[in-house]
Amino acid sequence: MPCSNYTELLKLVLDKEDRIARFGLKKASCGQTVGGAVLLPYIKGLKAEQLLNGKLRDFVEDIEQFDPQESFLFFKQFYSLRAAVSVLLGRTDGGKDEAFVIDQVDYDEGGTSLYGMISVAMVAKNMEACEGCGCQIPKSTE
């Protein structure tokens, strides 16, 4: 029977230069991995902030070659990571009404590890809005 909990746990690891090293998404209810990190080969090594300045198609130019289920995974992972990076950089507050709610940030000599919860329903709303109009997550006002 499919799970009705649409919350996922996200771990994002950045290297010491704030470049994407790896990430993972798991179902919050059971810990089951969700689709694997299909987006990682396309974004590994990018500065995390670059995710906020583009759309998925800027990073995965051949997105149309994938079937609808794979495409959904790409979009979900992209917008989940954007939400997490936005909170990490202080562009959004990561409160309970946001797509990403931060749980923990660890820093060490190797880089940064960010942990939190993703609301897939909120991410889906962002996917629909942003892919259609090309809007960006707000820039820092500093």
Kindly describe this structure:
The protein is an alpha+beta fold and 142 residues long. The chain has one domain (7-133). It has four helices and four strands. Strands 2-1-4-3 form a four-stranded antiparallel β-sheet. A hairpin with a 2-residue loop joins strand 3 (100-108) and strand 4. Helix 3 packs across helix 4.
What is the straight-line distance between the termini?
48 Å
Task: Tell me the strand percentage band.
Answer: 15-25%
Main sheet? 4 strands, antiparallel
Output mean pLDDT. Answer: 81
Counting H and I runs of at least 4 residues, what is the number of helices? 4
Strand order of the largest sheet: 2-1-4-3
Principal-axis shape equals globular
Helix content: 25-40%
Pick out the low-confidence regions: 133-142
Assign the structural class, choosing from mainly alpha, mainly beta, alpha/beta, alpha+beta, or little secondary structure: alpha+beta
State the total count of DSSP E strands: 4
As a whole number of angstroms, the C-alpha radius of gyration is 14 Å
Q: Tell me the number of structural domains.
A: 1
- Oligomerization: single chain
SSE pattern: EEHHHEEH
Q: Helices, strands, pairings?
A:
Layout: E1 7-15, E2 20-27, H1 40-43, H2 56-59, H3 68-88, E3 100-108, E4 111-119, H4 120-133
Antiparallel strand pairs: 1-2, 1-4, 3-4
Keywords:
single chain, 142 residues, alpha+beta, 4-stranded antiparallel β-sheet, 4 strands, 30% helix, disordered C terminus
